[in-house]
Design a protein that fits this description.
The protein has 424 residues and is of the alpha/beta class. The chain contains eleven helices and 18 strands. Strands 5-4-1-16-17-18 form a six-stranded mixed sheet. A six-stranded mixed sheet has the order 6-7-8-11-13-12, sandwiched between helices. Strands 2-3 form a two-stranded antiparallel sheet. A hairpin with a 2-residue loop joins strand 14 and strand 15. The protein is globular. The relative contact order is 0.14.
């Protein structure tokens, strides 16, 4: 009954007077672990079965571990119950688990996970005109982060991971085979899907691995692209983790950070074409302001994960309740009007997905544009109540305690507002 009420409220709020409304689910960082044991799991060993030291665990997950199958199936079912006819489902990567000992998940395991999740999504949304948009995450290979400049790898992934069934066009399949990136047009939007895992702790030393930035420039130079018509999506965002500002995401084997700023340079040059950038990876709920010459020119949103796993970047460990997000986009205005953030309150052992908050209601903004997010960020720095509300949402209402020190605040402010690794 609760889901039905939420869906009715959502439908009622989707009627904007300016243009056609498009609905987009974003689901990210599922990290499905088939070895999770709710009957005798060991939390210090990824909740895998342990006959001697294991214990009974929540069937829907544990904050020390990755997602069990019941959690994954429950979130897809909740998506279907809340909004069964979205225009798009943006699936932003990291479907396989984090464990690495005694050995990481094999490539066979990774592809099996992709098959299961692709089939699960298509089976729940097979009666609609929904386009599923898959994005590679750094854990969608074996070992994690091992993405070669080799078309054979991507062709195998496409075919054996069942992505051939969901990639939106033959052209997208050809592009994906190059190095995991592609683009397509639908409903007046251009979706640009990138493989930014090529830049995350990468073995590559060249400045443009897999020629992705050159390709991206070619796509964004299209004279037929209308202003604010591009939704750019990838798994790993540029810049820093907002809970530990010493952690930069884009680095290569020589510990050089050039690729981060080259990436941002391209996005700044074509920022008038980009409506929004959508990422995952951090397992947290936050946003980004991307600036050039002291002017915010583009914005990004980072969606929280399905996995409840405690993530650790630098010295900061963070738990978060599982989440999934539904965007409302006005095509006439070329902007994200709102999003509904859903969550499973695993901290209090709830079993039903519910609404955590809507962006406009929570933060008092009219939409999610550059002006609105820039104003929100400015207000967060002077309004303690507003900042602490954002901080609660950062871990999807999981209580990690308040952000009450200068170090914590600076990390959040820098993570949100400064993605450059050199002085600009």
């Amino acid at each position: 009954m609760k889901l039905l009420v939420i869906a009715i409220v959502l439908m009622a709020s989707n009627h904007y007077c300016h243009g056609v409304v498009v609905k987009v689910w974003q689901i990210t960082d599922i990290h499905l672990d088939g070895y999770y044991s709710s009957t005798s799991g060991q939390p210090q060993n990824w909740c895998h079965f342990d006959a001697e030291d294991g214990k009974a665990l929540n069937a829907l997950g544990d904050f020390n571990c990755d997602s069990p199958w019941p959690l994954v199936s429950s979130v897809i079912k909740a998506m279907q119950d809340i909004e069964p006819n979205p225009d798009f489902i943006l699936w932003t990567g990291d479907s396989s688990p984090h464990f690495s000992k005694p050995q990481p998940p094999s490539m066979e395991y990774v592809l099996t996970v992709e098959q299961r999740l692709t089939d699960l999504l298509t089976s729940h949304f097979n009666g609609s005109n929904t386009q599923i948009i898959p994005v590679l995450g750094n854990h969608d290979t074996s070992p994690a982060g091992n993405f070669p400049d080799n078309s054979t790898f991507y062709k195998q992934f496409r075919q054996e991971g069942h992505w051939d069934a969901i990639l939106p066009s033959e052209g997208a399949k050809v592009e994906f085979q190059e190095c995991g990136y592609y683009h397509f047009k639908a409903r007046g939007l251009t979706f640009v899907v990138l493989n930014t895992n090529l830049y995350y702790k990468t073995k590559f030393t060249e400045t443009d691995p897999c020629r992705q930035l050159k390709w991206l420039e070619g796509v964004l130079q299209d004279p037929d692209l209308a202003p604010r018509s591009v939704i750019l999506s990838a798994h790993v965002p540029p810049g820093f983790f907002e809970r530990s500002s010493t952690v930069a995401f884009f680095t290569n084997a020589l510990h050089e950070n050039k690729i981060n700023d080259l990436y941002l340079d391209v996005l700044m040059r074509y920022s008038d074409k980009i409506m929004i950038q959508l990422y995952g990876h951090t397992h947290t709920d936050t946003f980004r302001l991307y600036s050039s010459n002291d002017q915010v020119k583009s914005i990004g949103l980072i969606a929280p994960s399905v996995t409840p796993l405690v993530t650790k970047f630098g010295d900061e460990s963070t738990s978060a309740n599982p989440g999934v997000r539904l965007y409302t986009i006005d095509l006439g205005l070329g902007r994200v009007m709102d999003y509904h953030q859903y969550y499973l309150d695993l901290e209090h052992n709830h079993t039903t997905w519910s609404l955590a908050y809507t962006f406009r209601n929570a933060y008092g903004t009219p939409d999610l544009t550059i002006k609105s997010l820039e104003t929100l960020f400015q207000n967060m720095q002077t309004n303690e109540t507003l900042f602490q509300l954002y901080y609660k949402h950062n871990t999807l209402l999981y209580d990690n305690g308040p952000c009450d020190g200068d170090l914590c605040r600076r990390a959040q402010y820098c993570g949100i507002s400064d993605a450059w690794l050199t002085t600009r």
